[in-house]
Amino acid sequence: MSFKKTMVGWSVASALAVMSGSVGASGFALIEQSASGMGNAFAGGAAVAEDASTIFFNPAGMSRLSGKQISVAAHAIRPSAKFSNTASVAGFGRPLGNGGGDAGSWALAPNGYFAMEISPKMRAGVGLNAPFGLKTEYQPGWIGRFQALKSSVETLNINPSFSYQATDALSLGFGINYQQIHANLTNAQNFVLGEGMASLSGSDSAWGANLGALLDLGDGGRIGLAYRSAIKYNLSGALVVTTPAGAIAANKAVTAAIKMPDSWSLSYFRSLGNQWDIMADVTRTGWSSFNELRVLDAATGGTLSLTPENWKDTWRVSLGSNYHYNEQWMARMGVALDQAGVTDIYRTARIPDNNRTWLSVGGQYKPSKASALDFGYAHLFVNNSSISQKLNTLPKGFAGDLVGSYSNSVDILSAQYTYSF
Predict the structure, then answer these.
(1) pLDDT at 306
(2) What average pLDDT does the segment 395-409 reach?
(3) What is the DSSP code string of 258-306?
(4) In principle, which of 78, 106, 351, 414 could form an S-S bond with 376, CB 3.0–4.6 Å?
(5) Rounded to an integer, what distance in angstroms lies between the CA atom of residue 117 and that of residue 293?
(6) DSSP structural state of residue 35
(7) 255, β-bridge pairs
(8) Cα-to-chain-centroid distance, residue 69
(9) Residue burial 37-56, b: 16+ Cβ < 10 Å; e: rest
(10) DSSP letter at 33?
(11) What is the arithmetic mean of pLDDT over 384-413?
(12) Greater pLDDT, 259 or 170
């Protein structure tokens, strides 16, 4: 009986340690907020302001829109994450396991925007999007099953916004963000006599804001500056641990505070005659705010798990261009260098991410003056990632060690329809 209590207690502590170290997956930002920007690798995002998706990138850009406009887009995102073992150690009494297959799979990220003219100087709009998200899933019985099996994080953001034409050259924008998050994370549990399962789920809603300014430089040039605030969540949910026979070994209410980062973007756009546009963007994201994750017992408020994350602030630099064939057809291209917030020493199996290089192409077709179809494709070359994830659980060695490397990549297909009326 004493041995059974010890195993159940370890299962709870181990599940909390594993999952608390992976909730950082909810911090995986999604920049895929328009197909019109995809073909340029989102270069110039805060300065382009060509359709209602500017609500996300810079609400001040609505000042460039007339009448009413609706824009809807969908992004099919296919990450690939393949693990290669080098020196992993099996959990006590368990086989080492398989390679896990490809942890990535197709996911759909839709978004939509509506903007309207209130007066010659004022615009209002609303955006519906998903600023953060993650989906990874490994094959059952893989080497790192005690570290991670399935990770799913979904967000929904509603973003009412306003813009004001302060002068002939300067417009200002402001938006409010109401955001919901839901996360579900699973991993295997070692009960010596067999393997059980731990599942952690949690959800919350929170508020944030975004600001922007757009300066017209004349001669087809403009500069955009945009800011999105940090958003603080206090997720509440449950940890459920099941035995190898499927019985519930533990069912515990938990909470965890998570702070999504703020971001700053500085963008440039210029038209070169009637055929070429050039654009550039620099974005800083404050991931250093995510330095630890503390999981609390919802009943007592006591700390059940404290996991250091120590993420770093990141920079994203992008360049892009457009070529206008005629009034109906336009081609887009872009490149970007995109840093990852996680460092080698703190990388987990749930987010085996690293620095990325974007190569993007796309285009636009206007069947009429009132409508536009945008499409884009991007391939992200992700640097190979090393991992050495050793869980601090008791009894020591029950979860094994995950030591190896990842080969990663991402493919994104985007489409968008915009209608002005």
Answers:
(1) 67
(2) 88
(3) EEEPPEEEEEEEEEETTTEEEEEEEEEE-GGG--EEEEEETTT--EEEE
(4) 414
(5) 44
(6) H
(7) 236, 296
(8) 27
(9) bbbbbbbbbbbbbbbbbbbb
(10) -
(11) 87
(12) 170
Cα distance between the two ends of the chain: 72
Cβ proximity of 392 and 17 under 8 Å: yes
With 0-12 CB in 10 A as exposed, 13-18 as middle and 19+ as buried, what is 240?
A: middle
Residue 19 pLDDT exceeds 80: no
CATH number at residue 41: 2.40.160.60
Mean pLDDT over 210-214 rounds to: 98
Amino acid at 89: V
At 84, is the pLDDT very low, low, confident or very high (cuts 50, 70, 90)? very high
- Those residues whose C-beta lies under 8 Å from the C-beta of residue 27, and which sit 6 or more positions away, are 132, 258, 260, 261, 287, 290, 311, 341
The candidate with the shortest Cα–Cα distance to 293, out of 310, 312, 311, 306, is 306
**Cis geometry, peptide bond prior to residue 110 (ω within 30 degrees of 0):** no
Encoded amino acid at 13, one letter = A
Q: What is the pLDDT of residue 284?
A: 96
279's tokens = 């654009």
pLDDT for 358 equals 97
- Does the pLDDT of residue 4 top 90, yes or no? no
Q: Reduce the DSSP state of residue 42 to 3 states and report it.
A: coil
What are residue 248's DSSP bridge partners? 242
Contact 26, 20 (CB under 8 A): no
pTM of the prediction?
Answer: 0.89
The SS3 call for residue 23 is helix
Tokens of 360: 């993007």
- Give whole-number Cα distances, 10 to 6, 18, 80, 293, in Å: 6, 12, 32, 19
- Between CA 68 and CA 371 the distance in angstroms is 12
Q: Greatest CA separation found in the chain?
A: 81
pLDDT digits (tens, 9 = 90+) for 105-117: 898 999 999 999 9
Taken in order 39, 42, 44, 46, is the CA torsion positive or negative? positive
DSSP state of 132: B
Tell me the HSE value of 325 on the side-chain side, using a 13 A CA sphere: 9
Provide the domain count of the chain. 1
Tell me the two tokens of residue 304.
């059940």
Peptide bond into 395 cis (omega under 30): yes
∠ CA 314-319-323, nearest 5°, is 155
Return the bridge partners of 411, or none.
78, 379
Helix (H, G, I), strand (E, B) or coil at 415: strand
pLDDT band at 5 (very low <50, low <70, confident <90, very high): very low
CB atoms inside a 10 Å sphere around CB 317: 15
